[in-house]
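Write out the bound-state structure for flavin mononucleotide.
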Amino acid sequence: MNRREFVKSMRAVAGVAAIHGFAFAKEGEKKMKYAVVYFSWSGNTRFAAETVAKKAGADLFEIKAEKPYSGDFGKCCDEAKPECYGKTLRAIKPIGGLDLAKYDLVFVGSPNWWGTMAPPVRTWATQSKESLKGKKVCLFQTHGGGGMQRVGQEFAEIFGDTAKVLPPKAFSGSSIKSNVKALEDFADERIAGK
Ligand SMILES: Cc1cc2nc3c(=O)[nH]c(=O)nc-3n(C[C@H](O)[C@H](O)[C@H](O)COP(=O)(O)O)c2cc1C
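---
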């Protein structure tokens, strides 16, 4: 095959790929890598994280407290309250396989606890802020009716000028399973830089 025939056959392949919706990265264009890191106590934020990760084609990682919170709602609330108001860094387990250097944008999911992020998320963000220097980071949270409250602002404060913090978004926890489209749109918009 001469050069002309080669170019012709490549164009044909590109045409077929375009028809089938594949995209070829242009020369010099780097494939962006995404991660979703989340903490969830009762599963709503896990569902949101899985949905965002699927849409973004992102790797998914769970933050776990070294000492889990009580499985009883009232006891968990009592345990978490002083930590949330005191901005306590509750110890977390190391996240196996997470190398932040690989990613361009990291989505971070937290439930709204006492108006702010769950303490394990605060710990993770504090420990990770230097590794995320120059990268993009974006919070999403699920809540029980309070909306964003202090979550987004306190999350952004942790990063200061290390990572570029994209606009956070709050989702209702109780209706999270009927919010797949909103979660997918959120993923698409932040990836598009909106
Ligand atoms: C300890 C605790 C504190 C909470 N505090 C708030 C709050 O201040 N505002 C709010 O809207 N929801 C609050 N909620 C409700 C959760 O944010 C909501 O149910 C969320 O979707 C749970 O996410 P998860 O299922 O991923 O744990 C609280 C829940 C718990 C367990």
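---
The longest strand covers residues 105-113.
Residues 18-23 have pLDDT under 50 and may be disordered.
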